[in-house]
Specification:
The chain has 436 residues and is α/β, with parallel strands linked by helices. It contains 20 helices and ten strands. The protein binds zinc ion (2 copies).
Length: 436
Amino acid sequence: MADDLLDLARAAQGACPCGATHAMRTREIYIGEDWTARLTALARELGAGGVTLVADERTFEAAGRDAERALGQEFPVKTVLLRGRELHADAESIGKVLLGVSERTKLLVAVGSGTVNDTTRFVAHRVKTPYLVVGTAPSMDGYASSVSPVLEEGMKITYEAVHPEAVLASPRVLCAAPRAMVAAGLGDMLGKYTALMDWKLSSLLTGEPFCQRIAGLMRQAVEICRQNAAGLAARTPEAVTELTRGLTLSGLAMQMMGNSRPASGCEHHLSHFWEMRQLQRGQGASLHGDKVGVATLLIVEFAHRFFAKKRPLKPVDRQAWERRMRAAYGDLADGFLARNPLDREEATSTQEQYDRLLAHWTELKSQADALWESREEMLRMLAESGGPVHPDQVGVRPEDVRDALLCAWLLRPRFTLLKLAFDLGVLEEIVDEMLA
Ligand SMILES: [Zn+2]
Ligand SMILES: [Zn+2]
């Protein structure tokens, strides 16, 4: 059933009018109940000697034990169990997985979703060993991606890593995932609407390469999820399986683009900012996809207000903004300001961006208007699937909303609507309107 997914992605392969050559390296997506047999067969194809299997306590129970048993019939298996409630892909979990790798290890198998996957992918890249993923929850779109966000001294840094050779999942296991993780997957997918808007904006205003094929693939991925949103509330196996397909396709799109641009825009920056702040506070983190869903609704409103009136270019008081950034980032301010300075230059000057914005105003505004019109539907889909729609439902305080809208663009050197609004000197004015 998942072959068509690979076919969709394969159709976008090769030399592309966007100037890039897209390659999909993941060889198989399998979502079905025969997954342990497929896992063993793939391990054989990949010439596995020793296998290092990585799981956390919950995912080990969900599918790790079955994977270990199946692989153990043919290969020596070393299982690394990441323990604790608040796991992150960080030095500790990476070190732990590295300790579980020896000269005999010829294959890594990640059983789990976010952290387990990010950690294993990072290590697989560093030790130059292929890896497979067994997904246990449709909570995020990173299964097929080839980058790893790693938490380093409070900062989430995205590292180049490696694609999985295959992604496997059992609909039964996916359906048994906590309800919140299903809703989070939908939230992560709705974020693609604003991510695609940011990508288009950047291509028109700064000349960043934009790929119609990959964007089309991403739209298909979102559409698969949107059509199945109603079934997510009841967690029908069909709807949960389709959501997983959509999420995996999104990961493939990132893999083929070679970066997360098609899947991540300023809605993700808000989510990362909130996560960072919750960590600083020692507050329990909420799910990535939940925060992305909530952030997407805010960005849709921001875009609506941005395009509601043409504003003149205004000078930016960088000293005042530096004080604000320092206050918003606390101890982490130096790190982020060094990586992404306030006077960061884009490929085009602010004046050029402004001129191009006016030249493409109608096209960009109609994109923002369409999103604004679908905002109610997004809200309903999230609410029906059991996901949060309001910042306080994901532990985000009113000051976090304001600080994220004003300052989250500093997290990544990526051109987005929030960065544009900053450069044009109108960011604070629009945020004030929104939060009035
Ligand atoms: Zn995401
Ligand atoms: Zn392309």
